[in-house]
């Protein structure tokens, strides 16, 4: 079962995109919800609000444990910020999980009025992917184990590391399912193989 973090942000759009791919999902708001899923989408929204809600809901610590154990996770926009190792321009009380070896700057492309859309060349895709950037984080550094799958100019905007996929933009706001398909493939490849008896 897939989960979509549903504390705030565009979680419903992610669930619709997964449903279009034939993937059932549930909204994750409590530790019990989290315990029932094997993979998670962390949507866009307001990262400081999401950080606070993760704390008040009791989700932060169990989610940190699941991420450290390698749970496949797809973070978009604020979700990328929450996964990042270092967050620049965050509030003092803002927490991230520190599992993705990137440094991101909150609202690094500017405020709401500076939001933009552009075509992105994504590694492995046979055509461009339409990127919707809304108060997007800017990736300022990536670690040696991070694969950059797409750039905007010289800036990484789509990255992968192990069982993690993270986008600075909002793939759920386009009709293109290819990034969610890639996450589904990632979940499949991360699943433990069962031994034959």
Structural features, described:
The chain is α/β, with parallel strands linked by helices. The protein has a single domain (2-190), classed as Class I glutamine amidotransferase (GATase) domain (Rossmann fold), CATH 3.40.50. The protein has 6 helices and 12 strands. It has helices at 11-20, 31-35, 47-56, 60-68, 78-83, 178-190; strands at 2-5, 25-28, 39-42, 73-76, 84-88, 100-105, 116-120, 129-133, 138-142, 147-152, 155-161, 164-167. A 7-stranded mixed sheet has the order 2-1-3-4-12-11-10. It has a 3-stranded mixed sheet with strand order 5-6-9. It has a two-stranded antiparallel sheet with strand order 7-8. Helix 1 links the parallel strand 1 and strand 2. The longest helix has 13 residues, at 178-190. It is globular, with a radius of gyration of 16 Å.
Outline of the structure:
With 197 residues, this protein is an alpha/beta fold. It is built from 6 helices and 12 strands.
Whole-Å distance between the termini? 25 Å
Given this structure, which CATH class is correct?
Answer: Alpha Beta
Percentage beta strand: 25-35%
Number of structurally distinct domains: 1
CATH topology: Rossmann fold
Helix/strand/pairing class, anyone?
Answer: alpha/beta
Count of alpha/pi helices? 6
| CATH architecture assignment name | 3-Layer(aba) Sandwich
Q: Biggest sheet, open or closed, and with what strands and sense?
A: 7 strands, mixed
Q: How many beta-strand runs?
A: 12
Approximate helicity band: 25-40%
* Low-confidence parts: 193-197
What is the CATH homology-level superfamily? Class I glutamine amidotransferase (GATase) domain
The value of Rg in angstroms is 16 Å
Q: What is the typical, i.e. mean, pLDDT? A: 91
Shape summary: globular
H and E order? EHEHEHHEHEEEEEEEEH
Q: How do the strands line up in the largest sheet?
A: 2-1-3-4-12-11-10
